[in-house]
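Dig into my protein:

:::
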Amino acid sequence: MSIYDGDKQIAQITKPLTVIDNLDSYFLHIKDEYESIVPILSFFTVYYDYRKYNNSGEFTKNSVEITTSYTYGKNNDKYNPNWIAEEFGQQTADELERNLNTLMEQGSAQAKKIVKLVGFIFLVLILLAIILFVCIYTFL
């Protein structure tokens, strides 16, 4: 999400597309001359997360949500995908990209564990059903 002062971009809030255990992460990049509004943007980020991605009351363990996002808004022409690199340097943009990739890798690894666990439970249930069927059939 890009934040503007008039036509000038002053900040960017980046939300990874991978969420592990309902713990959303956000990365805030803001120009130095606007650092006085960091508390406001932080509060806005919490409010935005609450309104858009509200999972209150849910208790999860070993859950992963990996989404894909496409934006077709009227402000797409204003979005500059290179803004962080241009304002904070390529090293900062690379670090953000590494953080996003790390979250995606962690989410994928956890999703694989969940699939294996569900598969194992399903296999155990099938084996129990077969054993139960054999026991009932042999006693009849």
